[in-house]
Amino acid sequence: MTVSTTPTLEGQPIQQYLGIVTGEVIVGANVVRDMFANIRDIVGGRSGSYERILSDARKQAIEELQAECGSIGGNAVVGVDLDYEVIGGTGSMLMVSASGTAVKV
């Protein structure tokens, strides 16, 4: 299934707009991982564990978006927007949200 941030797909005319679809993933932070990430912040460098978690959460949100699109008869999603938000009283949760328009091409 094609997923695009653009409003159209070149060479694939949109036949029908089916509505907005979304995918959301909320992941929790780990105390040990947070401790090592804080050390990296002090000494410099990238936090590979957080990057993996962020990448996995983004992939899961897009997969949910595709599943919702397919469930309403779509075969592509256009105008996709990805949002990232830290939530929870202590900022210990990360939410990744993907939204777009389900279409038939």
TrEMBL record:
It comes from the Bacteria. InterPro entries: UPF0145_dom_sf, UPF0145_YbjQ-like. Belongs to the UPF0145 family. HAMAP family: UPF0145. This is UPF0145 protein GRI35_00470.
